[in-house]
Specification:
There is one protein chain. The protein has four helices and four strands, in the order H-H-H-E-E-H-E-E. It has helices at residues 8-11, 20-99, 104-112, 139-149; strands spanning 118-125, 130-136, 155-166, 169-178. Strands 1-2-4-3 form a four-stranded antiparallel β-sheet. The longest helix has 80 residues, at 20-99. It is rod-shaped, with a radius of gyration of 55 Å.
Length: 190
């Protein structure tokens, strides 16, 4: 049988030194975990910086494109104003054409009514007066011409102020007063 020694546990030297291998493994694990944590932190920081740089690049591109967009919008605004003015001019031109009695059809109406023995030298058109200068072989042709001009509905008053005889021909002037055109309405343009 063995003796019981209650103090034996106190008598033995405790091996307080830790195993060197265990310390080395522990230290290696801590270093590896530190490196992994440092790498993860660096990756997060790099991603954050990449996000910020792409955001800043987008802002720069947006500012550049905003300048271009503003230029385009300005040009579109100018085009819109030009279109409005063009439409106003078209309407004004149509109005003037509708009010214009001195036009190609009136000129054709006069030339169709010129008798065979009458030759026109000039036609002066004005809004208040039309003056025809010409020559004729006889007074009767001038009278017929005046009468035929009276058939044109746009003429109010036809008058022959002068007839003269020179070199076997009669030189004449006919003054025609066009009918007054009543302006139906006017449009204000800016």
């Amino acid at each position: 049988m063995r003796d019981l020694n209650f103090f034996e546990s106190y008598n033995k030297k405790k091996d307080k030194s830790l195993n060197k291998e265990l310390i080395l493994y522990g230290l290696s694990i801590v270093i590896v975990l530190g490196m992994v944590a440092y790498s993860i932190i660096n990756i997060i920081v790099i991603n954050k910086l990449n996000t910020e740089t792409s955001s800043l690049e987008q802002q720069v591109e947006t500012k550049k494109s905003n300048i271009k967009i503003n230029e385009i919008l300005e040009k579109e605004k100018d085009i819109g104003e030009f279109r409005e003015k063009y439409e106003q001019l078209k309407q004004l031109d149509g109005f003037i054409d509708s009010q214009d009695i001195i036009n190609e059809s009136l000129l054709d109406s006069i030339t169709v009514r010129v008798p065979e023995n009458v030759f026109l030298n000039s036609m002066i058109f004005n809004t208040n007066l039309i003056t025809l200068d010409g020559i004729a072989k006889d007074k009767r042709s001038i009278s017929d011409f005046e009468h035929k001009l009276g058939e044109i509905e746009y003429f109010d008053d036809i008058f022959i102020p002068a007839i003269s005889y020179e070199d076997d021909f009669y030189t004449f002037t006919i003054n025609i007063k066009p009918k007054e055109v009543e302006v139906v309405g006017s449009q204000d343009t800016d």
